[in-house]
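Weekly structure sync, notes
Attendees: PL (lead), two postdocs, one rotation student
Agenda item 3: pending single-chain targets
PL asked that the sequence for the first pending target be pasted directly into the notes so everyone works from the same version. It is reproduced below exactly as submitted, 361 residues in total.
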Amino acid sequence: MRNATAESSFLPCGMATGIGSVPFEDPDEALALILSEFPECPHWPQLPRRDRKEHFIHQFLQPLVDCGLLVFQSDRWLFDMSRETCAENLTTFYATSLSGEEGDPEAIKTFLPSPEAAAGFHAFLARAGEEDFWGHAAFFKGQIAGPLSVALELKDEQGRPAYYREELRDVIVRNLSLNARAQAKALSALGRPAIVFVDDPGVGAYGTWSHLTLSRETIQEDLHTIFEAIRAEGALSGIHSCEAVDWSLLTESGPDILSVDVYRFGASLIPYAEPLQGFLERGGTVAWGIAPTLDDPFAETAESLLQRLHRLWKELFPARADRNPVMRQSMITPACGTGLLTEAQARRIYRLTSEVSRLIG
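Predicted structure, written out during the meeting:
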């Protein structure tokens, strides 16, 4: 039986959910699909086709705009630290963020994504009173962009990635931590335990020639800070990467859930089978992204995807004749978000995900 208590051992037993983005402009249409396919763990929908503000890098940055740290110049957002108001803007930001970190509910609330940038989130909250809508839910899921993705994308006034300026990286991590905490708080208040994923494809930059100065310890510290902010509200934390990365970097950063595109990059887990086994033994969960999002979803069936997953498990855990413990600590998801696909593809991917979940559970 699937466990619906965030504070106790999390045993999702193949429960299905989505990564975040869907290719709809109407939040209600997106929610209808999510609820029909993921009734146990619905997620709020990110709607990148609705407005450029819904782009996942910028979706959670309104507090930095409000305090004047982020400015819009030359058709992009950047940190202009040469402005005379810079010190005052930093003081404003830290006053609010420190209050939030100390647990002030009003300060935490200011870090929620705005209705203009996250229409799906606010539509999700608005449906909270409808018991027939949420009646089968065991968890509610949210998501934010990861610190490495955001801080490598955003630049300062000289065109340098914000990640390489310590004061800007700190601002970004604090902002994302409080946004994640605010989401966890708001979702938990709906009457179900919350799960919040950190989506950080930028982790794939670690170890590459163009980012040789990225520090393993700093990446893990930043992620851990966000996970702890999520857990401060009694919620479960997840980390999602849709590339082949150093998976030990992520398992050792302290998430409750590791989310992997195993359709394309399942083989990349094999060199990390030992740390992955340790992650499971510590009570961690793996969200197996088995429904393809970059390949043709109509070329697969739920049965073919389940066979593919079983073959991967056999390679990862050759000593385990009994796969049930792995299954109990598993979630099933699409490989990645579907926001840039067609509506037909998204519907097929969500249906495949839910069907594999039913077969495995």
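Discussion points:
- Confidence is low (pLDDT under 50) at residues 1-8.
- The beta strands are 15-16, 70-73, 76-79, 140-145, 155-156, 194-199, 236-241, 257-260, 285-291, 330-334.
Action: rotation student to compare against the earlier draft before next sync.
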